[in-house]
Write a structure and sequence with these properties.
Distance between the termini: 50 Å
Number of domains: 1
CATH superfamily: PK beta-barrel domain-like
Strand content: 25-35%
Structural class: alpha+beta
CATH architecture: Beta Barrel
Number of strands: 12
Number of helices: 6
Strand order of the largest sheet: 2-7-6-10-9-8-12
CATH class: Mainly Beta
Largest sheet: 7 strands, mixed, barrel
Order of helices and strands: EHEEEEHEHEEEHHHEEE
Helix content: 10-25%
Shape: globular
CATH topology: M1 Pyruvate Kinase, Domain 3
Length: 197
């Protein structure tokens, strides 16, 4: 288990983010790749693993999602619609400045895929290697820790109307079909909910 590391704070201005955002927005829409798996065994601890197990009840095994809890639940346990936090590896790399700092974002799955609400509306199902996950409707937003690690401009950009439309801070998802995932696995959109005609 690696403790939280924040020795080198690298922050970008809004202008610097805007100048590089086109690369983030050009991520594939239907089939991408799982770039990183991160478990959070304890508060402010990160484990980057090559392989992980997705479980219907517990999410990513070895992660503290369930026991860390949520203010949105009556029993104090993790919210079932927030089992997995999925983030664009392109945006994470942009604001983190290096692959080593990406885990500080606090998400479990970093993918090379267009996470925008237009491309992945709630109810969309995605095959990650073998398992299938489903995008949920609860928004994933930046917080105080996100500001401490990546700067105020990064959080404001991610939480802006533009950032929310493209889900730059990431999306919440739940496990539909369990199984093992490995870094490098294909990430394939298998179904999207029908739009109102």
């Amino acid at each position: 288990m690696r403790p939280f590391e924040n020795d080198q704070i690298i922050t970008l201005t809004t202008t610097e983010i805007e100048a590089r955002i086109d690369h983030v927005l050009s991520a594939p829409k239907d089939e991408g790749r799982l770039e990183m798996i991160v478990r959070r065994p304890a508060v402010n601890a990160r484990e980057v693993v090559e392989e992980g197990e997705l479980d219907r009840e517990q999410g990513l095994l070895g992660d503290n999602w369930l026991t860390r809890g949520s203010s949105r639940t009556d029993n104090g346990l993790g919210h079932p619609e927030m089992q997995l936090n999925v983030m664009s590896c392109r945006f994470a790399m942009l604001i983190a400045g290096s692959r080593e700092r990406v885990p500080l974002a606090g998400d479990q799955l970093f993918v090379d895929l267009d996470l925008s609400s237009e491309n992945l509306p709630p109810g969309t199902r995605i095959k990650v290697g073998g398992p299938v996950i489903e995008v949920t409707a609860i928004p994933h937003t930046g917080c105080k820790k996100f500001v401490e690690r990546f700067g105020l401009d990064a959080m404001k950009f991610a939480n802006s109307v533009f950032g929310r439309r493209h889900n730059l801070r990431g999306i919440n998802a739940k496990v539909i079909e369990p199984g093992s995932v490995r870094t490098g696995d294909a990430v394939v959109v298998t179904s999207r909910p029908l739009r109102d005609a």
